[in-house]
Specification:
10 strands, alpha+beta, 2 domains, 289 residues, Transferase(Phosphotransferase), domain 1, Phosphorylase Kinase, domain 1, binds adenosine monophosphate, 5-stranded antiparallel β-sheet, EC 2.7.11.1
Length: 289
């Protein structure tokens, strides 16, 4: 089998899609097959300067091995003297975070649908021994059918047998066991799904305060309140995820089967029953080595 060596000249580069810390993302079309992708172009010098090459390599290795409808595909990657280029699935709907800012908050059917999809994707990651550790709206994109795509694996780790003790992730989404630097496992992602669900419905995360110390305190005390418009079903789900003891949190299968999630997802499925399939569904085969 001949392994294709990719080069930038294999692509027509289109408009910039966004700017990251270490480079830019462009819309691009692969010349031979005409497949639309996103190219993430990272500068080696900046990666080395910030000492994140190892993190990037980890991110690449993890994402390249995952294949799930709610995880942004990384088809391949290549590098030249100065740059590392990631060939990514193009997420037509852009950033979930921007969508949330635009709408202020999501309605319950939308929130439930997103929570189902994120849970499905994370459950798949966990089955591959990958813990994400940094789930938040900023790390989620939206695909061509309005589905979520988990996009950022910079903080995720391959979990070995022993549980990890590194402190990482975003403050508002940190579970108590990471604040106290206790050992943790994939239940850190269950907690994040609870925080995410709250943020979708309310427009801000549950433990947000002005100072880091106060946020830590509120997380440690699990101190949050629901605005009156949040339904009993959603409160029940969030309450079963924002639990101090990781072992007492409901798992992701239970999230997907939760009555509040199910009731909205079933309705959505009925509404979408006659929808056509993804026109780009064969893309991945064409980018495999
Ligand atoms: P990042 O460096 O991953 O933070 O990407 C910077 C920005 O580019 C993101 O916030 C998105 O707005 C955009 N972006 C990144 N990857 C994609 C993609 N695969 N499809 C569409 N937009 C993307």
């Amino acid at each position: 089998m001949v392994i294709k060596q990719w080069a930038l000249s294999d692509f027509d580069i289109g408009r910039p899609l966004g700017k990251g810390k270490f480079g830019n993302v462009y819309l691009a079309r692969e010349k031979e097959k005409g497949i639309v992708v996103a190219l993430k172009i990272l500068f080696k010098s900046q990666l080395v300067k910030s000492n994140v090459e190892h993190q990037l390599i980890r991110e690449i290795e993890i994402q390249a091995h995952l294949s799930h409808p709610n995880i942004l595909r990384m088809y391949n990657y290549f590098h030249d003297e100065k740059k590392i280029i990631l060939i990514l699935e193009y997420a037509l709907g852009g950033e979930l975070f921007k969508e949330l800012q635009r709408k202020k908050r999501f309605d319950e059917p939308t929130s439930a649908k997103y929570i189902f999809q994120v849970s499905d994707a994370l459950n798949y990651c966990h089955s591959k021994k990958v813990i994400h550790r940094d789930i938040k709206p900023e790390n989620i994109l939206i695909g061509s059918n309005g589905e979520v795509k988990i996009a950022d694996f910079g903080w995720s780790v391959h979990a070995g047998k022993s549980r990890r003790e590194t402190m990482c992730g975003t403050l508002d989404y940190l579970p108590p066991e990471m604040i106290t630097r206790a050992k943790y496992d994939e239940a850190v992602d269950y907690w994040s799904v609870g925080v995410l669900c709250y943020e979708f419905l309310v427009g801000k995360p549950p433990f947000e305060t002005k100072t880091k110390e106060d946020t830590y305190k509120r997380i440690r005390n699990i101190s949050y309140v629901f605005p009156s418009f949040v339904s009993a079903g959603a409160r029940d789900l969030i309450g079963k995820l924002l639990v101090r003891d990781p072992k007492q949190r409901i798992n992701l299968v239970q999230v997907m089967e939760h009555h509040w999630v199910m009731s909205h997802v079933r309705r959505e499925a009925i509404d979408r029953a006659s929808q056509s399939s993804d026109p780009n569904e064969n893309e991945e085969d064409q980018f495999e080595e």
